Amino acid sequence: MEQQKKKKPIWLIILLSVVGLLVVIALAVVFFITGIFSNMHRDKVDIVSGPNGDISGIALPTADPFAEALETGVDYYETGEIQKVPIYEQSKIDRFITSVLVVVKNGSTQDDTHQTDMIFIVSWNSLQQKFTAVAIPRDILVPLEGYGWKRINAAYSYGDRGMLINTVNACFGTDIQDYVLIGTDELAQLADGIKGIPVDLTEAEAAYLNEQLGCSLKAGSQRITGEQAIQYLLDRTSDNKGAIGRAKCQLKVIKDTFNYMTDTFDKDFLYPFMRMISKGILTNMDFESLSGIGYEMCMSDDLSFVTICMPFEDSYTEMTYDGGYALLPEFEKNKILLQQALYGKEE
């Protein structure tokens, strides 16, 4: 877990939230959209009463020992008929904490593909003035309602945002009811909108990007284009980083981009950037909630920014499952640690 605290003038606090949206994909900046809110693509998934989400009695999957799945570099996706699963209603754990699921789908929000390599929980704690981003690797094995054990990104493939939210809540004890959806195409456009993403490439990462995109990058600190940034965020093979390493890389980009933007841009940049973001996302969040959280974040003089990678360290097993690489988490341990991090709860 990594935490950063800075006292900033209001416009820099706003930029902080913008970066949280850009890199954790679009939540925080929505908090500050007022007059341009009509440009946002509002979306809706029904919220209904549903199962209590207890998975304690479900037997763990039988899997082959971890072997060569990671080294193959083959992306593994579930495909099937997409159902519009409703979101199961959850009691709020803490009225001062709002948690949202952020889904980055492969391609554009406008196409029909249902594949995702990036899933995040984004949480705002108004009492502690804390903004938390949790990266959830797509290869985590979870029980899906009606499908048995699958990788967590299969929840989006089979049941859209509703099944994905239900699965995260059931497995990890969260109370998520809201979502933000953005595509990698739109994310690349946002990255180009801030004149590239700052990264510090290793030689292996530079070679990977050059091979994938036909560019001529070298190792070292630099800004990369939106197309290069998406490929970088999806890289799980260079430096043998794997699924966990990829998630940690995504979180590192959050911090680096925050520092870059707060050091580079001024308030005159904010409005057009917000307009661009508002056109590229889908969300079911209402204006009153967004503006209320946005006001609190704006007025904070000691806002902390925390990044977390799940599963937590020493709480998972790497394995080959159903022909591909997978992570089997220790659910109870991860549930406790996540609730401590988000809600200050022991269980």
Describe the structure.
With 347 residues, this protein is α/β, with parallel strands linked by helices. The protein has a single domain (2-193, 255-343), classed as Nucleotidyltransferase, domain 5. It is 37% helix and 24% strand. The protein has ten helices and 17 strands. The protein has helices at 10-23, 69-72, 153-172, 184-193, 203-213, 226-234, 242-264, 267-278, 287-299, 331-343; strands spanning 2-6, 41-42, 47-48, 64-65, 87-88, 97-105, 116-125, 130-136, 141-144, 148-151, 178-183, 197-201, 220-224, 281-283, 303-309, 316-321, 324-329. The strands form five sheets. Strands 1-15-8-7-6-11-14-2 form an eight-stranded mixed sheet, sandwiched between helices. Strands 4-16-17 form a three-stranded antiparallel sheet. The protein has a two-stranded parallel ribbon with strand order 3-5. Strand 16 (316-321) and strand 17 (324-329) form a beta hairpin. It is globular, with a radius of gyration of 19 Å.
Concise summary:
With 347 residues, the chain is of the alpha/beta class. Helices cover 37% and strands 24% of the residues. The chain has one domain (2-193, 255-343): Nucleotidyltransferase, domain 5, CATH 3.30.420.590.
Mean pLDDT: 79
- CATH fold naming: Nucleotidyltransferase, domain 5
Main sheet characteristics: 8 strands, mixed
Low-confidence stretches: 5-40
Number of strands: 17
Strand order of the largest sheet: 1-15-8-7-6-11-14-2
What's the CATH class, please? Alpha Beta
Shape: globular
Approximate helicity band? 25-40%
Broad structural category: alpha/beta
Shape-level CATH architecture: 2-Layer Sandwich
For the CA atoms, what is the radius of gyration? 19 Å
Question: Helix count?
Answer: 10
Instruction: Give the termini distance in whole angstroms.
Output: 19 Å
Order of helices and strands: EHEEEHEEEEEEHEHEHEHHHEHEEEH
SS strand fraction: 15-25%
How many domains? The number is 1
